[in-house]
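Example complex used in Figure S2.
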Amino acid sequence: MNTTTFRTDQEFFLDPQRCIGCHACEMACAECETNGQIGMIHVDYVDRYFTPQTSVQICMHCLDPVCAKVCPADAITKDEFGIVHSANTARCIACSNCVDACPFGVPKKIEPMDLMMKCNMCYDRTSAGKKPMCATVCPSGALYYGTREEMRERRPNSEPVNQFTFGKQIVKTKVNIMMPKGSTVLVVDDE
Amino acid sequence: MNGSQLPEKPDYEVDFPIERVEAEHVSRREFAKFLCLVSGGMAVGTAWVAVKDTLFPPHRIEGEVFVCKTANVPLGGTHAFTVPGSRTPFILIHLNDGSWRAYEQKCTHLSCAVYYQPQADKIECPCHNGWFDARTGNVLQGPPPRPLPHLEVVLKGDDIYVAEPKTV
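Predicted assembly (359 residues):
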């Protein structure tokens, strides 16, 4: 077993409504050498014609990661802390199965490297007891990494939710999304 | 993914689990199987070597075999030869003091070809830097476990013959 100082009491809390579109997280992410200085976090414009609202998306680290399940090369694995790791560079064949399979649109095929790369919750930092880069720079609290108690104090009227439904499919994730108090599930697509 | 609807885990998920803990796990049974396979393989291999050695003993030279004329090999020179009925390579060495030696050219470590170095007056195996005494065939350094097998050199006028060594 690997010896790390991964803080199992800390979790990621994502609050896309608080995203102000400053792109600081993208810049911070791209500062990391382990990503090849490519940002692994996605800042999306919800409907740019009508609103300046942006939304931020990191890897949700599904409990049953479909990206890893569809990988024909066994390149994506999940560790004992629930981190779904980016593609093993020696194994990834750049087939883009994971890109198509991910319900959150997280993995991206990086063409110059012919490799899938995605957020691994800054495993090089979190395994050393530090917080992910994006969470340390977010000025509005859209990205927060800490304990559940800290989050409850900061957002008494919100509830961390880690269950999504896509039609009949239920996806549970390691990363929490902040929902109004009392919510238990985020229904993405209700068939 | 609602896993409970699937009848059971397909084989590929068992063989290539996405969980690192599962992928790296070696069960007691797997380890025991591996241990049995390796030690069994070694036992069978050793038995095979023993049987082969008993059923097919190494080739022995009958009588004296002509190799070449003394004029063909200068002082410090060598001559490669084989004996009839065997493909084992031998070298005849004309040592600097004028005496003659004949050795098997196969290193006793991993059967690489060995070469006589006249300056050092030693036999070298270049594969793993093994060295033999050119006079006795004994190992001087390196991985070879045994001395080089040698043949008796018999001089008859200008003709050189080899024979099995008398004390075996």
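The first helix of chain B runs from residue 11 to 15. Helices of chain B lie at 11-15, 20-24, 28-55.
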